[in-house]
Amino acid sequence: MPRSSRRAGIGLRQPHYVDIDTRRPDLGFVEVHSENFFNPFDPASAVLHQVRQTYDVSLHGVGLSLGAACGVDPEHLEQLARLVDRIQPCRVSDHACFARGSLRDGRAVHANDLLPLAFTDGQLDILVDNVQQVQERLRRPLLVENLSSYIGWREADWSEAGFFAELGRRSGCGLLLDVNNLMVNARNARVADPLRKVCDWIDELAAAAPAGMVGEIHLAGHSEQGDLIVDDHSDVVSLPVWMAYAHALRHFGAVPTLIEWDTDLPCLDVLLGEAAQAQALLDERATIPMDFEGALACAA
Predict the structure, then answer these.
(1) What sections of 139-193 are H helices per DSSP?
(2) Are the C-beta atoms of residues 220 and 184 closer than 8 Å to each other?
(3) Contact yes or no for 143/173 (Cβ under 8 A)
């Protein structure tokens, strides 16, 4: 059984390379952004190989553009496949988004963003085809992450949770369930009870998804920037997100869980404290009773 099974981990970021190597904290796994390690001769790749001797590594990508109608960039996929062969990660994931399109002359253009998908039958067909292509090349299941998005599409044939459940049935992929993304979307939608909205989303997924589809969970902090809640991974995990996470564990069991932190990076001990809190909930299988109103009041 992989070391990362039923364990919490943290994102491996450059300011913590030395501390991770010298202290070797008790973690289930570390996660890196795949594209940062495509070059096998880069010094960062040497660090990753060294870390891999101690920890399972989860590869989390941002560039496959799985929802692109023009298909997956073959060179990007090949670079990912070579990285997978070198590292032998415990999991490989990317986002349910598009970031790539074609101009009239056939040239590919790339957006420097993760753009949201419409939850339609046509988009589902595209996503299934692209995910299956990636899985066939990597010779392993892919985890696909739900997105935090700041715009949406009016046209929809599916709810978001139903869309992911059907994706899992048709492609055989797993889901990287980002609980913070769900909370960001619920708060930006100005619903009266964001925590209840997120838990209802999780309930719907649990009822419709294939057994075992949730292969990893992400937790992160977010910030208020004017009238917008931004998924910037810049703070500790909020209490409502912890409560929604506990709810998810009740449904899906002790799923490997990552603490994401990408901006305003703190010292390693802060990240390890967040991971320890996630590990405590994993160990207890989320037996803490939920108080939705109390959680929201404490987080306000």
Answers:
(1) 160-171, 179-188
(2) no
(3) yes
CATH topology of domain 8-299: TIM Barrel (3.20.20)
pLDDT band of residue 112 (cuts 50, 70, 90) is confident
For 176-217, what is each residue's pLDDT tens digit? 999 999 999 999 999 999 999 999 999 999 999 999 999 999
For residue 169, CA distances in Å to 68, 173, 212, 254 come to 20, 8, 11, 22
Q: So where are the chain's domains? A: 8-299
pTM over 0.85: yes
**Cα-based angle 135, 139, 79 (whole degrees, multiple of 5):** 75
- pLDDT, residue 103, reads 72
Q: Which residue blocks in 172-238 are alpha helix, DSSP H?
A: 179-188, 194-208
User: Residue 146: which of 177, 185, 116 has the closest Cα?
Assistant: 177
Q: What pLDDT does 2 receive?
A: 56
